[in-house]
Amino acid sequence: MPARPTFSFRPLTLALLATSLAGPGTSALAAENAAPLKATAAASSARETAAETEPKAKGEKGEKAEAPKRTAAPKPVDPLEHVRERLAEKLGATKPAEVPEPNVVRVVTRATAPVASARAPRLNAAASRGDPPSPLAERLATEHRARAEAAHAQWDYAGSGGPDTWGQMKPEFARCSSGLRQSPIDIRDGIKVNLDPVQFDYKPSAFRVLDNGHTVQVNVGPGNSIDVGGRRYDLVQFHFHRPSEERINGRQFDMVVHLVHKDIDNRLAVVAVLLDRGSAHPLVQNVWNNLPLEKGDEVAARTMIDLSALLPTERSYFTYMGSLTTPPCSEGVLWMVMKAPMPISSEQIGIFARLYPMNARPIQSVSGRLIKESN
Ligand SMILES: [Zn+2]
Predict the structure, then answer these.
(1) If you count DSSP H runs as helices and E runs as strands, how many of each does the chain have, helices first?
(2) Which residues, by Cβ under 5 Å, contact ligand 1, an ion?
């Protein structure tokens, strides 16, 4: 999630804004004003989910589960722009002179919106009477600022937004800490059985490369699918992690590609192809050649991509039920980890490392789950 505009409401600005919006029916106005903010927040959140599952184009959700949401996700809209428009609408009619500088007014697009609407009238009243700020108003402002800061917290792989905090960031991420069927895992002690091979139906396709702020993601045109267990899943996107998130008998690889598929019921199936240092990989190079210059930008490649080239010749695999490895960590994801790694050159690893030196979620507990592997 690139550069989702981060907005913060400064207390003073809040009061100003509230004053500007004040007048008869202030509460109704504030509530109305909050609605678009909420909608924007939803859109923004849908885009975020799209990050790892990341089929952003179709609106799939991180190796994601909120696929239905994505489908409904509106086209990306600059939330700040939207807020500006709303402000202009509200303020323009009555007090054009008070329209705050667009670059100064920052508005929280997330959970803070309702807070603002609930409190604005009280802060307003004081401000419009010209009273000095009361202790209550100051306390509310401080509280508001704290909430705005919390809402800003972005999930990450280290630091204050690291994996240990994902589950507490928002209710939708709770599974990240409470789930018992999470990914990635250290794959070992698999049961050797005759697994049906995964039937890959990949073909040369148009693609777009996106730096979503957490990884390099490639959105692939329609027409690619896999068949597993009699069920067909369409490829939505693929993306990279460094180092590999999954381990095999404790071993971590240089990188991994996650190919995210979704079936007609929005069930997710992810094929993982481990990447091991060796010769350069032409398909990876094709993707790197189209890297966007800026996070959040999506580059439409002028070449085609054939994901078959990414698959090892020997296609035995491990399979288990897990989750998205990024918030919201939704479960019910069918994982298929190819046993044979594919090569990637040091230079190619180095290029990804410049963008994302470490974007692997730590290993999660297996919690007694069954792991099967091809004989
Ligand atoms: Zn992934």
Answers:
(1) 10, 16
(2) 258
Residue 122 has what pLDDT? 44
**Closest of 362, 357, 342 to residue 242, by C-alpha:** 357
Distance in angstroms (rounded) separating the CA atoms of residues 266 and 334: 12
Q: How confident is the model at residue 135 (pLDDT cuts 50, 70, 90)?
A: confident
CA atoms within 13 A on the CB side of 256: 29
User: pTM (2 decimals)?
Assistant: 0.64
User: Both tokens of residue 112?
Assistant: 């803070």
Is position 241 annotated as part of the catalytic site?
Answer: no
Contact in structure between 301 and 286 (CB atoms under 8 Å): yes
Indicate the average pLDDT of the chain. Answer: 76
Q: How far apart are CA 301 and CA 307, in angstroms?
A: 15
Distance 240 CA to ligand 1 centre (A): 6
Give me ligand 1 centre to Cα 116, in Å.
36
Give the sign of the dihedral formed by CA 47, CA 53, CA 54, CA 57.
negative
